[in-house]
Structure formats: C-alpha cells, structure tokens
Amino acid sequence: MASAHAKTTRAGGTVRTLVMGLWLPAIFLAGLLYSFLPAFHHPTPHHIKVAVAASPAMTAQLQQQLDTAIPDGFTLQSVDSAAEARSAVLNNDAVAAFAPTPHHPQLYAAKADGAPMESIIRQVFTSAAQKTGATLDFQELVPTRPGDTLGTSPFYLLMACTLPAYFLVAAMQRAVGFNRRKHVATIVGGGAVAALACYFTAAYGMDAIPQHPLALLYLFLLTQSVSLTTYGLVAFLGPLFPGAAVTLFIMLSVPSSGLTVSVDLLPGFFRFLHPVLPMGNAADALRNVNYFDDQQLGRPTAVLCAWIAFGAALIVLGYVKQLRQLVREAQAGITEYVPMPPAEDPTAELPEPVALPPRRQHFGEQPPMLTGRVSGPAGEPLPGITITVTDSHGRQLLHTRTDQNGEYAATGFHEGFAVVVAGAPGRQPTATRLLLDTAAPVNQDFILTPLRRDVAGQTSSH
Questions:
Q1: pLDDT, tens digit, for every residue of 114-125?
Q2: From edge to edge, which strands make up the β-sheet containing 74-79?
C-alpha cells in the first residue's frame, strides 16, 4: 500500500510539474491555432463602406449586384457627386468611392486603409464593371508613406511598444530592492523610452510615420495600457498573470488590430474586439494621425486612457489587498502565516534564496535582502556560525555560515515573514522573526553567548 501511495504521489507531482511548465506554451499554441489562423486565413469583406456618386435607385441596383457576388460584403451610400464621394474617402468616412459613369466608371480608394483591402475592392468593382462592358479607372487618393510602402510598418512599430511593455513588468518581478512605487516609476519611464525609440526610428529614420507629437503620444499610451494593466494583474493572478497578459495583448490584440488584415476583412469576433483592445485603438489613432488629418481620434484616445485607468485601479486595489493580508497575518501570529509564491513569468527563472559573500556584490548581481553580523559578548566576530532561515512553518529556505568577519548575507526570498536562527556548538542559539521585503533590505545582528556548565558537567543555558 505504501509503495502504491508513493507511486501515486510521484505521478501527481509529475503531472503538476508538466502543467506548470507547459501551460504558457499551450496558450501560445491555442492562440496561434484558434486566434491568428481563423482571423487571417480567409479575409472576406464585411460591410465595407463605399460612397457612390449616383442616384439612390442606381445605388440600390449596384448594392443588389454586389450582394449577389459577396453577401453583406459592401454597404453603399448614395452621394450627390464624385467630389463628395472622394471627400468621404479623404475624411475617412468611407473606405472607397465609386462614380459609375457609362463607359469609364471611376473607383477611388486609400491604400492607407490597407493594401489587402484596396486589392479586394479593386477586384470586386473591376469584375462588376466588366459585366457591363465598361473599363474601370482607378485613382489612389491616400497612398502610403515612402517608408511604409506595404502599410505594415505600424504593425511592427506597435509590437515594438507592446512586447517590451510586457517583459518590463516580468523583469520587475525580479527587481530586489524595488517597492511598488519604484516598479510603477520604472514601468512609466521604460514606456517613455520605448515610445521615444519607436517614434524617432519610424518618423525620422524610416519616414514610416509622420513627425507629429500625437504619434509619439499614442505610442506612449499604448505602452502604459499594456504595462500598467499587466502589472495590476500580478496582485490578483500571481504566477498566472503572464497567461492573461499574453492572451489580452498578443493573442487577441494582434489579430483584431487591423494592422496586418484590415478590420472590415476580419471575422465578426475580431471586428468586435477591435474597438475594445489597446492595440487596435492605437493602430486607428496612428493611421488617422498619419493619413487622415487627425480626424476621429476621440474613441481611440478614450479607450487607451480607460485601459490606463483600469491598470492604475488594479494596482491600487492590489496594494490594499496586500495591506489587508499583512494585517491578517500579523494578527494570526507566526504559526498561521503561509508565504505566497512569487508572481513570476514562466519564461524566466526567478531567483531562489541564496547566500551571498558579504561586502562583495558586483554589478548585475542581486543586492542582499538579509545581512547581519554575529559576535560574542565582547563584540568579537564569530566565523563559521550557522545561519538558518525558515518560513513560518519551519520549512528551511536557506542554510549558510558566517565568514571570517562574522558576517553573512542572502537574497532571493519571497516577501513575507521568516525566522532567522543563529547557532553553533557550545553557544546558546538565537532566533528572531523578520518581515523580509524586496524593497527594504533587513540587517539582523546576533550576539551568541557560550553555554555554561552546571556542577554535574552538563551544559546549561541558565
């Protein structure tokens, strides 16, 4: 029976290890198969707005013809003249404009709305014109910038803002000595640096976006939408926060952004997500600043700011949650405290408790969270003294010894209460309970007195 129980325990441990090690790759696999693939494999028009310079009756006839070819693919709007139809495209009120003259119908479009979108529109209207024996003339109204020929540069630009914003939050989980305020300051500062780097490279180095302060603003707002929300999730999801962040800001945001495939060519689920998620709104804002004279910026600005406010609210609520937890733990006493696991990114190994050489920290190494000196009653240093750190349930976290100066140092602890014991043969051991905090390194000195012997030759601590 004992052997069977041991096998079951080992099997359960193996399963847990596999689950903890593979759940994030599983999210990437599911995202690529069931998010990216459905979104991109077959772009199909969905209610593409086209301004038609024709009477309502002729427009309705053309609408019926297009619905027969592609049901619900286009939504035609009758306008009074070709000039008005062109203005609708230039003002971003329509994706294309059509003037159905008898022999040479004219199609107007904007490559800035996406090269795949423009290609599909030209194919559909060319086919419709050929059925009537006419030859379609095409005119490009809003070409892309010289540094953005295919119209895909914003995709890489916004990815360059999104991925570093996420990884910066993951890196902050390793930042020993940083409290929540320093975390947030680093996240904001890192986002500003990323936005500036992307802006100057794309605007001045490549001419892929305009040299316009609004472009820089929206790049910065995107970094903060991603990083502050991701950081706010840490307090509530713990080690699961990478899964939520990757799902929200990569697996769902990229397909619904409209950067690689235009929004009107995506399936309904992704068209619904487009005006909700940060990347899609940043893409719309950047495109409107780039090509459409800063028009229709209200919704992208409001949504990006709402994500930033949501992230800030999560951070504040997480702080309140931590304060309440510490109060409960202090009231419950040492035996009731159970340290929480760190909120770690499974793609990076977080530090474990480890002893450090006192006074010999080098650049790039973790600073100590716990330091101290062990001495005798006369102040003499005591080398070789055993230092043991345990959690509140007695589980050993670290075992080390003092150096020749009687000093010790250690780092890599999780935030929370711990018990530090100093002891050596022939000396009275001493223990103390400490609150270890990555933002506030603790120094704990010990004085060890020799054990006295009673008249029978037995040691005594009295």
A1: 888 999 999 999
A2: 74-79, 48-53, 96-99, 106-109, 137-140
